[in-house]
């Protein structure tokens, strides 16, 4: 009689709270996903400022005058192919093929580096023409949004180099698999943001 | 150490399966995503660079609609987001963020566009010029 009472009041609450709840298999991935979602808000804020200020030219150049669509097409293709080749690297990782994975990672990294290089070239060209971020609210918003994305890609490239060294030294172990899965999400996420950038900032920006 | 962890990984994968883990892609999945994304990229470039549609508003609408479709292609084929990954929490976080982003974007653009529209007579310099000059002139003599 007494033991039943003790069981009911003593052990039932602990069972209820957490005894049956399995721990997350890999908490880092959901955590990283939530970081990416918060990064969405950073980009959303920058998109909003561009949407609001995008036509404030202050007598300076308009979008149609400074935005380079053929260059944009090259950049978009580079980033999309880089995204797919990173996916191929992840498939090689599942097969535990270290050499194949490093090869695809190198291709993805090179494509992203070309993207950053072309973007810097475009920015320097615009600044040389007098269409720098200090010219008008439109250009400030443009450089902040596109520059923030470019900075993300640059950091992704550095992260990729670090992970390639890690994999080269320690192989495809559990820690490296987890890190590569996070970088893979980051990489695809940046390509997703670029869809918004090239559609809204460039293609619509040229029309407005 | 490294030997044991390398062997622990595949067995762990098989035990948990994909239900509690990030959904893995396939070559076919990535290529499907790539082809769809490429098509959804080429169409808006063609529309804008080729001046295909006369109406500016229709072109903008189509470009933005294709961008939304392409974002979903990326989410499904590249980020492998589905209701099963991480026990559904990825999807929950995504829906939450998507709703907030839509509210932030939509409401800000709506408010600022309406405000600009209401302020429009002020921003045209030609109508303001005759009104500003008589007001400034009385201010200047004390300075000179």
Textual characterization of the structure:
The complex is a heterodimer of chains A (208) and B (144). Chain A is an all-alpha fold and 208 residues long. Helix content of chain A is 83%, strand content 0%. Chain A has 8 helices and no strands. In chain A, helix 3 (27-53) packs parallel to helix 8 (174-207). Chain A starts with a helix and ends with a helix. With 144 residues, chain B is mostly helical. Helix content of chain B is 77%, strand content 0%. Chain B is built from 6 helices and no strands. Chain B has helices spanning 2-16, 27-49, 56-77, 89-123, 125-136, 140-143. At the A-B interface, helix 3, helix 5 and helix 8 of A face helix 1, helix 2, helix 3 and helix 4 of B.
Rg from Cα of chain B: 28 Å
Report the biggest beta sheet of chain B as strand number plus sense, adding barrel if it closes. none
Along the chain, the helix and strand elements of chain A come as HHHHHHHH
Number of helices of chain A: 8
Based on helices, strands and strand pairing, what is the structural class of chain A?
Answer: mainly alpha
Strand content of chain B: under 5%
What share of residues are in beta strands of chain A? under 5%
| Secondary structure tally, helices of chain B | 6
Largest sheet, strands/sense/barrel of chain A: none
List the helices and strands and how they pair.
The complex is a heterodimer of chains A (208) and B (144).
Chain A: H1 2-10, H2 12-19, H3 27-53, H4 63-66, H5 69-94, H6 98-128, H7 137-170, H8 174-207
Helix pairs in contact in A: 3-7, 3-8, 5-6, 5-8, 6-7, 7-8
Chain B: H1 2-16, H2 27-49, H3 56-77, H4 89-123, H5 125-136, H6 140-143
Descriptive terms for the model:
heterodimer, A: 208 residues, mainly alpha, 0% strand, elongated, disordered N terminus, B: 144 residues, disordered C terminus
């Amino acid at each position: 009689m007494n033991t039943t009472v003790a069981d009911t009041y003593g052990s039932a609450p602990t069972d209820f709270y957490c005894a049956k709840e399995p721990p997350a298999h890999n908490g880092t991935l959901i955590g990283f996903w939530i970081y990416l979602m918060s990064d969405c808000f950073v980009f959303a804020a920058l998109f909003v400022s561009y949407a609001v200020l995008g036509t404030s030219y202050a007598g300076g150049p308009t979008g149609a005058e400074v935005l380079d669509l053929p260059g944009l097409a090259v950049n978009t293709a580079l980033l999309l192919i880089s995204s797919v080749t990173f996916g191929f690297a992840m498939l090689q990782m599942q097969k535990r093929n270290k050499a194949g994975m490093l090869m695809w990672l190198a291709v993805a990294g090179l494509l992203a580096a070309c993207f950053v290089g072309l973007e810097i070239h475009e920015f320097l060209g615009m600044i040389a023409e007098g269409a720098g971020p200090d010219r008008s609210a439109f250009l400030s918003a443009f450089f902040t949004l596109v520059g923030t994305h470019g900075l993300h890609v640059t950091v992704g490239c550095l992260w990729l180099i670090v992970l390639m060294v890690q994999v080269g030294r320690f192989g495809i172990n559990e820690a490296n698999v987890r890190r590569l899965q996070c970088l893979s999400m980051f990489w695809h996420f940046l390509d997703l943001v670029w869809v918004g950038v090239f559609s809204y900032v460039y293609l619509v920006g040229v029309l407005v | 150490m490294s030997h044991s962890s390398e062997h622990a990984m595949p067995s762990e994968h098989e035990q948990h399966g994909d239900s509690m883990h990030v959904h893995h892609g396939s070559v076919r999945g990535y290529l499907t995503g790539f082809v769809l994304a490429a098509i959804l990229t080429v169409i808006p470039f063609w529309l804008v660079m080729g001046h295909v549609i006369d109406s500016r508003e229709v072109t903008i609408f189509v470009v933005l609609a294709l961008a939304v479709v392409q974002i979903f292609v990326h989410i499904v084929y590249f980020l492998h987001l589905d209701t099963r990954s991480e026990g559904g929490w990825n999807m929950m976080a995504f829906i939450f963020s998507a709703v907030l982003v839509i509210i932030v974007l939509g409401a800000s653009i709506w408010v600022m566009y309406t405000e600009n529209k209401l302020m429009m007579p002020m921003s045209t310099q030609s109508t303001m010029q005759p009104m500003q000059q008589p007001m400034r002139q009385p201010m200047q003599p004390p300075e000179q």
